[in-house]
Amino acid sequence: MACKFDDVVQPSWANDHVLYEDDLLKLRLDSSSGGGFASKNRFLYGKATADLKLVPGDSAGVVTAFYLSSAGEKHNEFDFEFLGNVTGEPYLVQTNLYIDGVGNREQRIDLWFDPTADFHTYAVLWNPSQVVFLVDDTPIRVYDNKNASATKPKGHHRHPNATTTQAQTASAFPSPQPMAVYSSIWNADDWATRGGLVKTDWSHAPFVATFRDVRVEGCAWAANASDSDAGEVARCSGSSWGKEGRYWWKEKDMQELSVHQSHQLVWARAHHLVYDYCVDTDRFPVQPPECAGR
Questions:
Q1: Any domain includes 162
Q2: Catalytic residues
């Protein structure tokens, strides 16, 4: 039966654990397997959004992910990973970026609501200037293209940590590689909850994450084009309009946060940030270049 998800995503592994019920898509984890889906198209720049209700109850050891990724060893990847917990303890949301195949850019926040009680919206906005992770339209993390910001006019819209220094200019930003959108649920009790101390309790299986909607707005990569097709890079990077409509995600007001969004980001990080790789001197005695100014 056709459903609203069919134009956007398809099961990518363990198809029998990817379930369609009425207007919902459910990913199921039991002791035999998890499951996942992938977008039917790849895109270069845009916004990927999921309306998602996370696994309720005792979800310790269970990870649900919603992420964007390109292909190959030198891939780029932007991750939301929702780390389950024992009943009554808060979910943690881990974000991470892989750039040219290298990750280790983890940040974790707790949420200001119960993500298992209702649907909430999680999104990644990606353009040549920034990657923004949003929860219910509140930015929780921004990864700037410092090289681009060096040439951008400085105004009151720049959020904290955006001053440009020699070190920042040397920091990496994801090269233009087409990405697909993915989601999966799996057992990660070797690390997900309290560093792996709390294991998955299979008596509570199946664990189910429920999607009400998945939206991908972006410059769709030609299906027959290679990952490095210069024409597609030029079209998606340089154009302001295409067959998908107006490329709003690249317009000037998308190149940096608004004043209101900047205030939201400061609030989210002040009240809900529980881990930031940028200040983890045990892991990084030398601060990563993109963290300069923290």
A1: no
A2: 77, 81
